[in-house]
Design goal:
By secondary structure, the chain is an alpha/beta fold. 40% of the residues lie in helices and 20% in strands. α1 crosses α2 (22-29) and α1 (7-19) crosses α4.
């Protein structure tokens, strides 16, 4: 049966050699000399060989010379492992996979992640940009740790925490009759060519239901949608964050009566424990992105 090697005892041997005596080791380690001597004798007993020459405190036996570099390697490996484990437990090291809807990925995540990385420089992050449905699927299937998305309906596999609301408005070309309006109501959209998109389901069950059902097109890809709008093929509705704010050719007009919003929240798997790194990300998201009343 192999003897159990205690890291503390190995550290004592190394320190005695480095300090040149048991007395010097006791000063450095803030332990009594008898305590260190007893620990070393116990180690020698377990090994069945002396490590130090009897009567010469600072001289190793041939067996001690053999053991010293191996003791150093073992203590160094122990210390590195302990440091790594503690860093993981504290959320200071690790890899986080997070998925978000495109509007959040482009409008919120750049500055958010820059601040997060500044606070947690040892963490690595993979950001996945997907539609709302697929973000939820990725979280449920364990492909990512966390998602920031709209949750269209309750899902027992997911735990949802509301963050903020994103108001829906009309998007049209700069020369459209709506372009100079400060606000619009839903009745104003009657007779317009509406291009549906992935967020149009927000309008179902509202005053705009009939408008959506009679829409001229459905386009899920944002690049294609913007091209159609810039070509004057119609108008669309989008949450504010999804509007391409740097477009010189398009305008966003807030909608009211009734106001429709997209609810954005943080989702995680309901029955899976987050890694310490993902826990740090979750806490940071709730600190920075969660709307606080008042």
């Amino acid at each position: 049966m192999l003897p159990e090697l205690k890291i503390q005892q190995l550290r004592y041997v190394i320190t005695v050699v480095e300090e040149g005596s048991f007395h010097g080791a006791s000063r450095r380690l803030h332990r009594t000399q008898p305590a260190i001597s007893m620990a070393v004798r116990e180690l020698e007993h377990r090994l069945g060989q002396n490590l130090f020459e009897r009567g010469v405190q600072n001289r190793l036996t041939p067996f001690g010379e053999y053991c010293l570099p191996r003791f150093r390697d073992l203590v160094s490996q122990h210390d590195r492992t302990a440091k790594d484990v503690v860093s993981q437990a504290d959320g200071q090291e690790g890899h986080i996979h997070i998925a978000t809807v495109p509007s959040v990925a482009s409008r919120i995540m750049p500055s958010f992640l820059a601040e997060f990385i500044d606070r947690f420089p040892g963490l690595n992050i993979s950001l996945h940009d997907e539609n709302a449905h697929y973000v939820c699927q990725m979280v449920a299937h364990g492909e990512v740790d966390l998602g920031i998305t709209s949750l269209w309906q309750s899902d027992e596999e997911l735990e949802y925490t509301h963050l903020f609301e994103d108001k829906v408005g009309v998007v049209c070309r700069h020369d459209h009759a709506f372009a100079e309006k400060q606000a619009l109501d839903w009745q104003s959209l009657q007779g317009e060519k509406l291009i549906r998109n992935g967020t149009s389901r927000l309008l179902m069950g509202t005053a705009a239901t009939e408008l959506v059902e009679n829409s001229a097109f459905y386009i899920s890809n944002m690049i294609s949608l913007i091209a159609m709008l810039e070509a004057g093929a119609g108008i669309t509705t989008l949450p504010r964050l999804a509007f391409p704010e740097h477009s010189a050719n398009l305008r966003f007009i807030p909608l009211s009566d009734p106001i429709v919003v997209r609810k954005i929240g943080l989702v995680k798997a309901a029955n899976r424990t987050l890694s310490p790194a993902a826990q740090a990300m979750q806490a940071f998201v709730l600190e920075k992105l969660r709307y606080k009343e008042g």
